[in-house]
Amino acid sequence: MIRALLAVALTLMLGGAARAERLIVSVSNHRVTVTPNYSGEELVLFGSVEKDASTPADRTTYDLVVTVMGPRADMVTRRKEHTFGIWINTDYRQFLQVPSYLALFANRSFEAITSPEIARRQQIGLNNVLLMQRVSGDYADVVPNDAFRSAFIRLRTQRGLYREDAAAVTFLTPTLFRTGIPLPAEVPIGTYEVEIKLFSNGAFIGKTDTAFEIVKVGFEQFVATNARQNGLVYGLVTAAMALMTGWMASIVFRKD
Amino acid sequence: MQLYLPIADLPVNVFLVLAMGAAVGFVSGMFGIGGGFLMTPLLIFIGITPAVAVASVASHIAASSFSGALSYWRRRAIDPALASVLLCGGVTGTALGVWTFTQLRALGQLDLMIALSYVVLLSTVGSVMFSEGLRALMRTRRGAVPPRRAHNWIHGLPLKMRFKRSKIYLSVIPVVIVGIVIGFIGAIMGIGGGFILVPIMIYLLRVPTSTVIGTSMILTLVTMLFATLLHAVTNHLVDAVLALILMIGGVTGAQFGARAGQKIRGEQLRLLLGLLILSVGVRFAVELVIRPEDLFTIRELGVSG
Q1: What is the third-level CATH fold of A18-211?
Q2: CB atoms near residue A59 (< 10 Å)
Q3: What is the pTM of this model?
Q4: Which residue stretches, if any, does this entry annotate as coiled coil (chain A) (predicted)?
């Protein structure tokens, strides 16, 4: 009985023992704290590909794609148009529950790793990641070259929040790998999911997940939480602070 | 030294913001104004979103007008009756302004409206003030006495009330309306409105110069405190850390500005202020007319999970 349970547990833990390879990964820090003077950081993801007896003998080289997804949020992308001589926001699209941070890393170009078909199915590359939009009442992702979708990705990339790097994963040995996960200064807080997908000779052969968390600590987080949750108290305290500062100034600089 | 602003969600250099506060404070002390019309644009130019800038500057103006109001109170240069009538309008106007602000933000047109209001208001007030200052300067060159103005139509309105300290007898209708207008634009644009309020009170309501600045500061103080509160409750956009740095810089700069202002003649001061206001207005106009670097913008609607 116990043995049977253990076997089930093991099967679950290994994510399908039927697969020939096992991926073992770890991030350098599972809990990143953002302090008031935080100015960006880089996490490191380590891992190795463990072969077992059922691994085909001709399988010697592996390819990896690492996807890091930050907490999801709804976002609106607006487009300005030249109207009445000035630039005004006119059209907009709503993106639903899209990752606030999204990074895709690989050891070589996505095209070289796998076929376009598999890349699309496994959401490999920023063009293939599912970004749900609400288009006039319908929910769908659109073609990668859609103006709003590409503008959305471009703007997020400019802020360092979306990134794609086909040279970020390095194999230290044929089975041991590492990659850096850069986190910019304005990194969104929350839980980050990391998906590691393993390919060999163009075929998808397995994946594993891990996660890390970004938390804000200190005075700054205290302020942000209270501003959102206790708006009235926060407003009163800010108003009182303004009065105090004004009063102090009139004392300090009093001439008579 | 970098500091992360919790609400603006942006790391900034503390000394840069402190210097900006001091510079604006210097100008505001020199001209006897709140300086919101300079502070809000400066914050927008360093990358803080217009919404957060407007909401946070409100508390900064409250601080500087409070220290000013205190010294005017000690000199008995505030008319309490006039201030309370103005405040009736001011508080209503602020509430309306914050409500409009929230609606515009939901429509995605807030930034445009802030920019448009700046263009219209600042270029109008700026050019009027500039030309008026120019004329006054030429008059004093020629040695002429400024013409005394007679009572205007405003003094024919009903519901008159006696304002003892200002020694005027005036209808409450225009006073309340002025309060509403100043409160409204103050909440939307993140300005105290002193630079519009003072001329209106002098030229339209004929409030004597002895009480005009002190009384207008009371209106600025209360409407800005109220705006801070409402922006904090409805939009959660007030950045207290940003506001505190601005306040400290602002009140310090204002002291030196006030001293510098005493050395310059009134007409020249008005000319300079007009020019300054006009240039901020033009800066916003240019921004609206030229093709933006990026036609697309993203706004996050709150992170869930």
Answers
A1: Immunoglobulin-like (2.60.40)
A2: 15
A3: 0.72
A4: none
